[in-house]
Amino acid sequence: MSTIPILPIPEQIHGVSIICRREGRFLLVERGKEPLKGYLAFPGGSVEPGETATEAALRELLEETALTAQRLEHFITLDLARETRAYAKSYFLSVFRAFDINGIAQAGDDAVALKWLTVEEMPLYRVTESTLDIARSVAAREDGRR
pTM value? Predict the structure, then answer.
């Protein structure tokens, strides 16, 4: 009888991303660190030990934008290593839609700048492909377009 080799489990990283939308515009942060430094994406980051994804999303939103949200809804989970090839390890990203957003947006933590953009404006900037795809899905769902 042959034995089946046991393969090492690849290291996995868990992160969160938060969709904030006001008056048809999405809040994007300019990334200040690699990977994808200089690109615009939804605010977010890694889940810290002992945190739930929801707690991490609320923390990252506050750290990167100075905003709070009263309610989050899970939108989608992606493996960015598979989707973008920007990561060597599996990077599972839980994307949340934020509602009842409060505060005055200002860049913080590793966010260099903030922009409120429509889906139509996003292709004019360096926006990550997954961000643009998700923004289009949210706009279609919320605005009743296809």
Answer: 0.83
